[in-house]
Amino acid sequence: MSTSGHVVALCGGVGGAKLAFGLTRVLEPKNLTLVVNTGDDFEHLGLHISPDVDTLAYTLAGLADRERGWGLAGETWHFMGALARLGGESWFNLGDRDLAMHVERTRRLAAGRTLSQVTAGLTAALGIRHPIIPMSDHPVRTIVQTDGGELEFQRYFVAEQCRPVATGVRFEGADRAWISPALASALVWKKISAVVLCPSNPHLSVGPILAIPGLREGLLALDVPIVAVSPIVGGRALKGPAAKLMAELGLPPGLAGVAKVYEGLISGLVVDVTDEAEAAPLAAAGLPVRALRAVMITDEDRTRLALETLDFARELAARPARAKP
Amino acid sequence: MSTSGHVVALCGGVGGAKLAFGLTRVLEPKNLTLVVNTGDDFEHLGLHISPDVDTLAYTLAGLADRERGWGLAGETWHFMGALARLGGESWFNLGDRDLAMHVERTRRLAAGRTLSQVTAGLTAALGIRHPIIPMSDHPVRTIVQTDGGELEFQRYFVAEQCRPVATGVRFEGADRAWISPALASALVWKKISAVVLCPSNPHLSVGPILAIPGLREGLLALDVPIVAVSPIVGGRALKGPAAKLMAELGLPPGLAGVAKVYEGLISGLVVDVTDEAEAAPLAAAGLPVRALRAVMITDEDRTRLALETLDFARELAARPARAKP
Description:
The structure is a homodimer of 325-residue chains. Chain A is of the alpha/beta class.
């Protein structure tokens, strides 16, 4: 374990979970707070589904399917087949084992526990020692505004496969939400040395977290390096709609767009080695950039990128002048 | 199709479903109303589970597991394994495919449809042409009173495996329940020629149906044969706790107990050929008895018993004096 101090990492879907996995390999549970996007959460078939929480949990527990990119390895789909036969809604795939997570989460929430409490219990049952903290115990729902009207995130992402042209993104309920108690507690009581924005969609995965009132200001007030790892490699998102969405929202393509979304927040940006040239203008404009091998295939890739990202943060902390506005 | 007029059959679990299957093989959908016990229904893991409705539906659809005696043939149990790992309640087994029925039923009920409407939709999706009518759209819950306190039916039947000594049975909510609209409609508008009480537990499966206010009187007012098929063969229930429960409730053992429970209601009793001698005192006391091969192993057994039961009812209707009080 190679760092001192506590690290707060914000993450969303698959890419973020991979770096989070790496962080859990180099930081003790007491030194890491993993904050997860819940803007993708939705009610489906009467169940409370938290896609990003589950992706992170399955990844950390070593249960995630690496080929499909979501859900559990070795999953079966008998429930979905039977549901389709009954004429039920089958646009959102729920594996037989995965379903247990949703049913049990829904039951515990209905019994009055908070999403933080339920998540702590379920992830502990999976043998996960690092705390996974939902960004908020209050419902925040990511709504993609498109030329065909507003779409809840899963409708946009899964049912419509990101085809509609986006005109904006809003986070329903964010203005009334509080950050979750464990995150508030970490911000107040832990000696935080760095904040990492994992390689998740800046708008759709990290955006909802930063939309919770006070969090952005709270992170800046820590006065520690805030390092983003770019989800854009070679001008494209490794997974998901980040590049398409950014273009539709009028942002510069590629890394410049990522830097733009995080402007005023981050003190450093990790880019893939293949993007070093593209990152040069950002560095010239004063944003510290570190080019690393950012594509994570193996567990070793994840661990190495986590270590190198923390090294970068440590270097930024040691610099006399910080590139923050 | 060998009968004239409409038949109303009341049924509960596995044995009842087998005879109901036979009835569907000899009666057109328009000539049969299958009324199912919903006193076993319960909320579990946030899902509305209707065990007897599902047993009947799976049996009629040819999907039931014949060896295990409940649930779907070829079922898998990945959900239960994952649920147990999460520390969820695992005393009630829910198969991966079976789960679709409960999730979709719960969703449709939550959307405001009645249990009758939901059942009609789900059974039609399974290709079932004969109407399956829940006894009531209102919640009625069978409570077994035991020396250790009151137990909801599934707790008694599944979790406790009928071990506690029963002191009584009551049907929570029955006094406020109405019979389901389709049953009321059949009673009023159909030219009913016979009522069949399928070989289900008289107390726990047929009892809740007869506890709905007005139904018992309504059946008697039809002035048609009401024929019960005994679930007790050779002094034992073929399946389930009927014999044990009847003894604990102070009823005579065997057929005499069945006749006692249905006293004042039935105009004839079908018994197994092995019980003909035991049935002689009942016949001597004025209850018409027909000894038939009442153990149903094959589909042919089911169809034959259905035909012969309907024949018995026709003969009873033709008798000048009826053995009703």
